[in-house]
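Materials and Methods. Structural model of Tripartite tricarboxylate transporter substrate binding protein. The 331-residue sequence of Tripartite tricarboxylate transporter substrate binding protein from Neoroseomonas oryzicola was retrieved and submitted for structure prediction as follows.
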Amino acid sequence: MSVRDDTRIAPTRRLILAGAAALAAPGVARAQARFPDRPIQLVVPWPAGGSADVQLRSIGDIASRTLGQPVVIQNRPGAGGTLGPMTVAQQARPDGYTLTQMHLSVLRRPWMMRTPQWDPIADFTHIIGMTGWLFGCAVKANSPFQTWQEMIAYARANPGKLTYTTSGIGTTNHLAMESIQEKENVQLTHVPYRGSNEAVTAVIGGQVDMVCDSSTWAPFVENAQMRALSVWTAERVPRFANVPTLKELGYDLVVTSPYGVSGPKGMDEGVVRVLHDVMKAALMTPENTEVRSRFDMPLVYQDTQTYRAFIAERVEYEKAMVRRLGLTLDG
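The predicted structure was written out as C-alpha cells:
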C-alpha cells in the first residue's frame, strides 16, 4: 500500500477511536456517579476499642452520611497490625469497596521477611493521610516505679526481669523500645499483644509490668488506675503535664507514627477522589476532632499525592533501618 493510501486510512481510524471513546465516556461517568452503590468495608488491623479503631469508626460513621452507604469497620488484628492490610492487598478487588488503615509497620514489615509478602507501594492505592498516635509508657498505679529513671535503674539491676508490652513485634513502638534498651544497655522482656487495649488490660491485670503503646492507657492514667512514665511526643502533653517526653529523658526520639487509609492496587482515580474528599471532610469535623483530642492524636492530614510521596520516602527509610539493625522475622 502506498503512503498516500495510508494517509487516507489514518483519519478514518482516528474517527473510529474517537467515536469509541465518546461512547465509552458516558459509561465511565455513570459508573463513577454510582459510587458507592453498596457498603464500603474499612479493615482496621487492631482489636476493637483502641485509639485507631475509635478514630476510624468515627471517620466511617461521618463519611456514611455523605456517601449514602455505610462504611463498615472490620477488625482484623494480627502480625503486628499487618495481617489486615496484607489481606486487602492480596484479596480485595480494586473497586473502592475494600479499604484498610495504612501505618508504618505495613511499610516496614516486608523488609523484615526473607521473602516479602507485599510491596507497600506497588500493591496498594494510597488515598489519604490522617493522623498519628500519642505513644507512651505506663505502669499500674501500685507499681513500685514512680518515675522513668526508677524503672531504668531496676531494669539495669535485674536484666530481663522487667516485662513490657506493645501491639506487636516490629511495630514502631517496639523498635523505639529496642533503641532505648540499646542506649541504656538494659534488657527488658517484650510481651507483644495484638492491640493496645489488650496490652493495657494485661498491665492492669498484673500479667505485664508496663505498656509502651498508643494512648489507650490515657483514660486509666486519668482515673488513677495507671501511672504514665513517659510520652513520646515532641512536647509535653497538656493533660499529662507532669509526664516527661523521651527527649527530656535524654533520647533523641519523637514517635507519632502517622497513618492513613489505602486500598488495593489499581483503583480508579475518580473513586480515589471521592473517597479522599469525603474522608478529608470527616477528618476535619468537630466530631472527629473531639475523638482525636480524646486520644491526643495529632492532625497529620496529607492529600493523595502528598501521602503517596510520603509513603515512597518512608519505605526507603524503613528499608534502610531494617537492614542497619539486622531486624528479621520468621516467614
